[in-house]
Inverse folding.
């Protein structure tokens, strides 16, 4: 997915969010500034002793997309 900041025309491309979330967990959300999902994934990992890292990647693409869109970024391409 490619996002564009309408203020300064900065572009960010995300690729395979499920894979990166599976490998790095909450750090992937922190990298993209999705702080709400960073906190949620940390709490879920602590409560479930890391089992949530097997489930949360399925929701990573929507989480990243919602995070950028809520900040006012525009979605240029979705794969």
């Amino acid at each position: 997915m490619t996002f564009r900041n309408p203020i300064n025309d900065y572009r960010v491309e995300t690729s395979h969010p499920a894979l990166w979330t599976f490998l790095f967990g909450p750090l992937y959300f922190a990298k993209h500034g999705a702080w709400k999902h960073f906190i949620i994934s940390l709490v879920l990992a602590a409560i479930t002793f890391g089992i949530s890292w097997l489930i949360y990647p399925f929701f990573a693409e929507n989480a990243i997309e919602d995070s950028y869109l809520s900040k006012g970024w525009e979605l240029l391409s979705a794969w």
